[in-house]
Amino acid sequence: LDETTGSDYDIIPGTEQEKDPTITATYTLDSYVYVEVTDETEGLVEWYIANGWSELDDYENVYAMELRTIYDAETWTLVEDEESAYNGQYTCTDDNGAVYYYNADKGEYTAIIPVLKDNKVTYSADITNDDMTVGETVDLTFQAYIMQMSGFDSAEDAYYELVVTRLTAASYSDLKKIMDYEHSEFTVTKLSQSGGGLTLYAKNGGTAIIDFNEYGLSATTSYLVWTDGTLTLRGNEEDLQGSLGTIGTKQSGIYLVTAKGENAVVKIESGKYYSEASTCRLVRATNNGTVEISGGTYVSHGSKGTLFVADNGTITIDALTGVDLKISGSYTQTLFQAKNGGTIYVAKDVYEELEQAYGEEANVTIVSSDSSCEYDSATGYYVISAN
Q1: Rounded mean pLDDT, 154-165
Q2: pTM over cut 0.70
Q3: Cα Rg for the chain, rounded, in angstroms?
Q4: φ, ψ (nearest 5 deg) of residue 353
Q5: Distance between CA 142 and CA 211 in Å, rounded?
Q6: Sign of CA dihedral 213, 217, 223, 225
Q7: Distance between CA 67 and CA 258 in Å, rounded?
Q8: How far is the C-alpha of 272 from the C-alpha of 275, rounded, in Å?
Q9: Three-class DSSP category at 8
């Protein structure tokens, strides 16, 4: 995918801007070509997709076009221009402005396809100074893919196999694509941004897995809120690359990982969840959300921290890799808090190990004063409930 009109523009209200992202696709079999449009312009930029593209039913701002092996000697013309890269090939232009070439010697087609209608974007005349910040950057980006048609019933099916099942995350915007995929697995290979919070959900209540490897959402203001579907979190607990943790923060008052909503389920299998902030709660279930924990290391190095909070939600803890609390001086930590009808279930061995490690520490509260704890021998869990 190339663009000749540049990549940096000044937004001038009421004007048009030439912008010509163009896909060059080479193929030998009938294929689908796709373009993903990531619009982070906050409504400041108006654009339309070029003719010939069709938006996929299940994916917002993802468009497909069919590329056919349709060379016709009677209608295609020979390119006779020694300066052209397509000299000696046959060409035609369709009604939508896409240009096709056919290399008869190789049996190979090349399609040159415009992405934006009329190769332009527009800026509304209604934009005011309140809508923009001097020096602020907004992004409109494009990503192209191609996949053969054979073996797939639709462009959606081919796209799912090509992109969704193989996607890795290199930035926050990649992680946000979870919102567009019903069943997604992301393996983080790099995070190009260093801060900010994510509010994510799986489309139609689907499932998603994020494996952060040795990377993480770690900066001054990092947190994750999951609002619909089932999310599994994985990550390394040692040898993290420039990160506080899989998810980490230095900002006070943050809930680091939250399952929010009756259809929200977060499963934490591994990773390091780290706070250096005061009054930070590491894991929360709220609004009838559910958190299921089978591993992970939980680090609270800020003052007045709380590890697990069930606020009108449910947390079940079957296993923990480790807990690391800073409790010197005026630093105080609470392990479990249930409120507003919330409940925390802690496996017997986990609870008793934590009680043995921290029960005699004056600066550590195992169960908050607004919660009660009882052991249920039938299930093998300590049950922490709101008073």
Answers
A1: 83
A2: no
A3: 27
A4: -65, -40
A5: 25
A6: negative
A7: 44
A8: 10
A9: coil
pLDDT, averaged across the chain: 87
Question: Does residue 180 have a pLDDT over 90?
Answer: no
Nearest to 216 by CA among 269, 167, 272: 272
pLDDT winner (highest mean) among 132-136, 196-200, 237-241: 237-241
Confidence of residue 287 (pLDDT cuts 50, 70, 90): very high
Residue whose C-alpha is closest to residue 381's, from 315, 288, 295, 310: 315
DSSP secondary structure letters along 24-89: EEEESS-EEEEEEEEEESTTSEE--BPTT-EE-TTSTTEEEEEE-----TTT-EE---TTSTTTTS
20: closest CA among 34, 2, 33? Answer: 2
- Residue 128 pLDDT class (50, 70, 90 cuts): low
**Residues 65, 69, 73, 76, CA torsion sign:** positive
CA–CA separation, 117 and 66 (whole Å): 18
Distance CA 149, CA 157 (A): 10
C-alpha–C-alpha distance, residues 346 and 154, integer Å: 46
Q: Which two tokens stand for residue 281?
A: 């709660």
Distance of CA 241 to the CA centre of its chain: 19
Q: Which residues pair with 226 in a beta bridge?
A: 200, 259
Cβ within 8 Å of residue 234, ≥6 positions away: 209, 210, 211, 212, 269, 270, 271
Q: What is the pLDDT of residue 39?
A: 83
Phi, psi of 191 (to 5 degrees): -115, 115
Contact (Cβ atoms closer than 8 angstroms) between residue 15 and residue 57: no
Token duo for residue 331: 């630093």
Contact (CB, 8 A) for 324 and 301: yes
Q: Do 318 and 351 contact (CB within 8 A), yes or no? A: no
**CB neighbour class for 128 (10 Å; exposed up to 12, middle 13-18, buried from 19):** exposed
**Residues 6 or more apart from 100 whose CB is under 8 A from it?**
76, 91, 92, 93, 94, 109, 110, 111, 112
